[in-house]
Design a protein that fits this description.
Layout: E1 10-15, H1 25-34, E2 36-47, H2 49-52, H3 71-79, E3 84-92, H4 94-104, H5 107-114, H6 117-127, E4 133-136, E5 145-151
Length: about 150
């Protein structure tokens, strides 16, 4: 991995939705740690294999993902390099939470029977904002993605 900064020169490093694509994630995290100033923070995110892959599967069908993580596995990887790690989960909130609930109650069949699937999603999808997601501790097995906040 090539960087455009000297070791110890960054207060923060952001590495989002990429760690699942690398052969040696421990080496990548060690390199990111080396770039930090004292007290700096590395932010690393990855999808949750439990919500990404089909139920019971070890991995999704994404051919570019070398390794997909469960919360405990991702936490252990980050802790193998960093002294302090806070693991958060990204969850549906507000309208996405309501949409997921509606899907469980059969919304897919309803909009299909009414013939409104395309008009509904043409309006619904662009209306989604950052407020429709929540980043929080807990219920990590149900999180869409994980965010590790890592400090030396």
């Amino acid at each position: 991995m090539q960087s455009h900064g000297e070791a110890g020169s960054f207060d923060a490093v952001v590495f989002l939705q990429t760690i699942e694509h690398v052969q040696d994630p421990g080496a990548v995290l060690a390199h990111l740690r080396s770039l930090l100033t004292p007290g700096g923070t590395v932010y690393v995110s990855t999808p949750n294999v439990l919500t990404l892959a089909p139920p019971g599967a070890e991995k999704s069908g994404n051919p570019w993902h070398i390794r997909e993580y469960r919360a405990a596995e991702f936490d252990a990887l980050c802790r193998s390099v960093f002294g302090r790690v806070q693991l958060l989960g990204l969850h549906h909130a507000r309208r996405l939470w309501l949409h997921a609930l509606a899907l469980r109650w059969g919304w897919d069949a309803v909009h299909a029977r009414l013939g409104i699937t395309k008009p509904f999603y043409d309006r619904f999808t662009p209306s989604i904002t950052a407020r429709d997601f929540a980043l929080r501790e807990g219920e990590l097995d149900r999180a869409l993605d994980f965010l590790a906040i890592c400090r030396a």
